[in-house]
Amino acid sequence: MSGQNSDPMVELKRRAAEEAAAMVQDGMAVGLGTGSTAALMIDALGRRRAEGLRFVGIPTSERSAEQARALGITLVDFGSHPQLDLAIDGADEVERGSLDLIKGLGGALLREKIVAAAARRFVVIVDEGKLVDHLGSRSPVPVEVTPFGWESTARQLGELGARVALRTKRDGELFVTDGGNLILDCTFGPIAHPKALEASIGQIVGVIESGLFTSRTSEVIVAGRDGLTRLVAA
Ligand SMILES: O=C[C@H](O)[C@H](O)[C@H](O)COP(=O)(O)O
Fold first, then answer.
1. Residue in 41, 43, 93, 103 to alter for ligand 1 test, most ligand atoms within 8 A of Cβ
2. Which residues form the active site (predicted)?
3. Domain 8-133+214-232: assigned CATH number
4. Cβ(140)–Cβ(187) below 8 Å
5. Disulfide: which of 44, 165, 175, 224 matches 21 by Cβ 3.0-4.6 Å?
6. pLDDT-derived band at 4, boundaries 50, 70, 90
7. Which CATH class is domain 141-210?
8. What is the mean pLDDT of residues 139-153?
9. Tens digits of residue pLDDT in 53-74
10. How far is 42 from 225, CA to CA, in rounded Å?
11. Which of 92, 111, 113, 222 to mutate to test the pocket of ligand 1 (most atoms within 8 A of CB)?
């Protein structure tokens, strides 16, 4: 994920990642997202650290923690930093206008949402293919659930109108999150009221968190073939 890449879209995502990393100022506490786009941002922050920028990070996954540590980025926790200045992360879908999100195809949604909720500003970096008119158009909504009773939790998610699939890895083994939980990928199709759906999912016993992120985004930096665009919530 580091270094130069000849894929033009990766180069565009790298520019979006660098633009977001440029928002980090001396002394900040920063939430470090997860995924291929966030990894480019962590690389950019590693370069800024090597140039002398002082900041600390809270990672949203073990993967991002490992990458940040390798780059010499100082990692802290919520004990010393209960509030963050900025969090930067990728997304699987971004709804035009509202800037509501679906996240979690990489399985990091719980820590990502905790970090986003603790940040004064939450900046999202995506390529233009992630923009949709309605969330759910392409991506399922990942829902993190406790292993105990997941079948019952899945049935209740189905009653909300979803087709529910227990996430497995390529080798067929269960996908287990950094927190030791399971992911149910819930296909709803285009979602008319994401905020109401996020609330309904959150009320089901056994659900830990959903990948619907509504009313959280401060800004989205979109990498497109015509360059970068910055979107601010309407
Ligand atoms: O759990 C994973 C995260 O929500 C990612 O931020 C999301 O899946 C986007 O990842 P990528 O930048 O690799 O498309």
1. 103
2. 112
3. 3.40.50.1360
4. yes
5. 44
6. low
7. alpha beta
8. 98
9. 999 999 999 999 999 999 999 9
10. 23
11. 92
